[in-house]
Amino acid sequence: MTKKKRRLYMLGLALLGLGAATALTLTAFQDNIVFFYSPSQLQTQQVGERNFRLGGLVEQGSVRKLTDGVTTEFRVTDTAHTIDVRYRGQLPDLFREGQGVVAEGKLSGGVFVAREVLAKHDENYMPPEVSEALKQAGVYKKPAPNNTDAKTAANAAPTNAPPAATKKE
């Protein structure tokens, strides 16, 4: 075997090994990718049996606890479409009707079975995916600015004022 053929074989083996490593890496990543869908997007796309995130607003009057005390059913909407959600576990403290929510799980028989529910963390926050889905549905309303910070700052003592005297005994 000549040096030229040996180099070609080595190059071919190296490319084959690189291709196999790339295929294994992509297969491993495919299992960990979680897509985000709004209720409207679920009406037009087939998601199959894989995990995904569902985001929107918790529909008013839709939250109800089942008799087992652990399972909660509610509906998530983007105001255009609505999907039923079932969650078994303790909901976050900030979970309530009319607020943004992201749930991760699978679609089973037309009902989204959530294994994790994430709620917003303050009165002005909405998950970026949820706000984008609401913008696409044409119903997103930007939250009003919070003016309590300005009032608090106006009532505070000036920063260049001398410190208050303390009485020593």
From TrEMBL:
Matching entries from Pfam families are given as: CcmE
Which family, according to the similarity comment? Belongs to the CcmE/CycJ family.
Gene name in the database record: ccmE
- Topology relative to the membrane: Single-pass type II membrane protein
What species does this protein belong to?
Answer: Azospirillum cavernae
Name of the molecule in the record = Cytochrome c-type biogenesis protein CcmE
Report the transmembrane regions from the record. none
The protein's predominant localisation is membrane
NCBIfam families per the record?
PRK13254.1-1, PRK13254.1-3, PRK13254.1-5
Annotated heme binding lies at H121, Y125
The record places the following residue ranges in the Cytoplasmic compartment, namely 1-7
Please give the residue ranges the record annotates as the region Disordered.
Answer: 140-169
- Provide any one GO MF term from the record: heme binding
| Location(s) in or outside the cell | Cell inner membrane; Cell membrane
Instruction: Please describe what this protein does.
Output: Heme chaperone required for the biogenesis of c-type cytochromes. Transiently binds heme delivered by CcmC and transfers the heme to apo-cytochromes in a process facilitated by CcmF and CcmH.
One GO cellular component term noted in the UniProt record for this chain: plasma membrane
Q: Which InterPro entries match?
A: CcmE (IPR004329), CcmE-like_sf (IPR036127), NA-bd_OB-fold (IPR012340)
Chain ranges on the Extracellular side, renumbered to this chain: 29-169
